[in-house]
Amino acid sequence: MQPKATVVTIEPEPPSASTEWPELRQQRRAIVVVDVVESVRLMQANEADVIDRWRRFVNEVRTQVLPEHGGRLVKSLGDGLLLEFEGVTEAVACALEFQRRIPSFNVGYEVGSAMSLRVGVHYADVVADDLDIYGAGVNLSARITALAQPGEVVVTAQVRDALVDGLDAQLDDLGDCYVKHLSEPVRAYRVAATRSHEINDGASRPLAELRPTIAVIPFRAQAGDVHAQSLGDALADEVIAGLSAAQDLNVISRLSAVVFRDRTSGLTEIATSLGADYVSSGNVRVEGQRFKLFVEFADAKSGSVLWADALYGDARGVFDAEQEVATLI
């Protein structure tokens, strides 16, 4: 005779407070993603050293940078950071501060061993708790970070639109950019710190700030004239390249100056935004195989035109040595 089976009923234990998830909340935040460039290669070359430098950098961020700008460190990875801020201006200022501080962790290292950062900033509604932040906005922040080159900060149009006065920086329009896993392009902008305009004793100012700064605004063409506009951009590139070879000048990059090409901005606005002492600008028109370029060179502070001329040439050989249009400018 088989013994009767004993039925044992196990009652589930009530959930303890330690197993409950933190309460979710929805809020609008500036999301910052920091990525170490080529972290895998750096780790393979000298893992212990890279970990040490990264931990020291993160500690500086956590104890010095974030308290100053009111940010929260959501998570630290082995080669990146996820942070959130209530304000966009504080988030972008903090991102620029990261790029300013990271070179101190590369002192004494060769270029191939230097630790570089790329940073992306987006402004969106997120779902958050005490442990993490969630949502499509977080994913987009990570995607636009990949658009940044080493040492750069890239932001979305939502960030640009929310920026207010008080941020000492300039924005370069990168246009509509396609990023991974998104079918529609994202408007992105590169953010760079501008030079300080504080009055200071010349003896204590860096040499670069004592040199005159020139902005070459890409030459404007009539609306819809793609050929002429391409010619105007190319000529500006040549002029910038030629001026950059002079050691006694600071020359603004075309990516920074191009945002003023199609604007009706005055010299004062251009000078303030780009930190320029002098501005070169003009317009180009193509008729058949010939082009006409009107160009002027002005003092941004006084508004005086120091030089102006109308130049003509063959559009097919505009960069030939015998024409030397860019060299003349």
End-to-end span in angstroms?
A: 111 Å
Radius of gyration: 27 Å
> Could you say which overall geometry the principal axes of the C-alpha atoms support?
elongated
Question: What structural category arises from helix and sheet content?
Answer: alpha+beta
Tally of helical runs = 9
Q: What composes the largest sheet? A: 8 strands, mixed
- Estimate what percentage of residues fall within beta strands: 25-35%
> Helical amount among residues, as a percent range?
25-40%
Unreliable spans:
196-208
Query: How would you describe the oligomerization state of the chains in this entry?
Result: single chain
Mean pLDDT: 81
Number of strands: 13
Helix and strand succession?
EHEEHEEHEHEEHEHEHHEEEH
Characterise the protein shown here.
The chain has helices spanning 39-69, 88-101, 136-145, 157-162, 207-210, 226-244, 254-257, 267-274, 325-328, and strands at residues 25-36, 71-77, 80-85, 117-128, 133-134, 153-156, 169-177, 186-193, 213-216, 250-251, 278-287, 290-299, 305-314. Helix 1 (39-69) crosses helix 2. Mean pLDDT is 81; it is low at 196-208. With 329 residues, the chain is α+β, with helices and mostly antiparallel strands. The relative contact order is 0.09. The longest helix has 31 residues, at 39-69. Strand 7 and strand 8 (186-193) form a beta hairpin.
